[in-house]
Amino acid sequence: MLHPTPGGLYCPMGDFYVDPVRPVGRALITHGHSDHARSGHSHVLATRQTLDIMAIRYGVDFAGSSQAAGFGETVDVNGISVRFHPAGHVLGSAQIEIEKDGTRIVVSGDYKRGVDPTCASFEPVPCDVFITEATFGLPVFHHPPPSGEIEKLLTSLRQFPERSHLIGAYALGKAQRVISLIRRGGYDQPIYIHGSLAKLCDYYESQGVDLGELRPATTEDKKSGSLKGAVVIGPPSAFNDRWARRFEDPLPIFASGWMMVRQRAKQRGVELPLVISDHCDWPELLDTIREVGPQEVWVTHGREEALVRWCELSGIAARPLHLVGYEDEGD
Ligand SMILES: [Zn+2]
């Protein structure tokens, strides 16, 4: 019904791939991150929001044709019943349930369990085979509540009112979630965004996610005196290039699940690491597996061995798939 191939998970009965890493005839796509959603497929089945996001990122001709699947709606794909369910990862993100003759497989894509007002919350779907990632699949990974991380940022803004606070956050999902969290923390000043975030922020707003007043961080005068003490958000790569040098005495910040690894923060020159992740931490992975109650767990990528071992010790058959090409764009 489903097996790993070099192109990604393939369903021979339905002749489709899930999140293929190379162009295929028929692709089912869990979410818009570039390692899962690639352009050039003949046909794409995904949620309306994921299709919209792909069109924003790749252009309207990102696939030969496309079809939108609503959450919970059954779509017949060559005799296989397919249903999309919310994954709580980024706007539009879905788990994909595949069913034939009473056997049910759930491909969870990337997902998280913590509350995130910028997307629909993960829904556990009982299944026979649960396919999960394990980006943070080690017992050392515990992500703190994001509200506490944002409090660190707000404290820093009070302590260093002269310094521009430059936050590195991935363009799809993380940036909008961080902005939304900052607003919930009570910060109502304009937030300055790198040009590459504008279209996706506009799209989130159009889908009912309130981000408050956003201004381009690129139109201010070169000396950027007016951005002293401001919050500026851009993709992590932007802070390595000339764009970042316009800010005087900037305070480098990075919002990522990896920021709980001090060494990673140091390597990047991050002064204020914010541990904000759009993936499950270790306890959330285990809780989810217990909740969906599968007979078998397949682990696609990440720290696969520890999670496979935990499943086996818990009496659940498990295997690592060692899928390649998934680079955690939105970690
Ligand atoms: Zn992702």
UniProtKB/TrEMBL annotation:
Keywords: Exonuclease, Hydrolase, Ligase, Nuclease. One of its GO terms (molecular function) is ligase activity. InterPro entries: MBL (IPR050698), RibonucZ/Hydroxyglut_hydro (IPR036866), Xnuc_lig_assoc (IPR026360). PANTHER family: BLL1145 PROTEIN, CLEAVAGE AND POLYADENYLATION SPECIFICITY FACTOR FAMILY MEMBER. NCBIfam families: Xnuc_lig_assoc (TIGR04122). This is Ligase-associated DNA damage response exonuclease. It comes from Rhizobium wuzhouense.
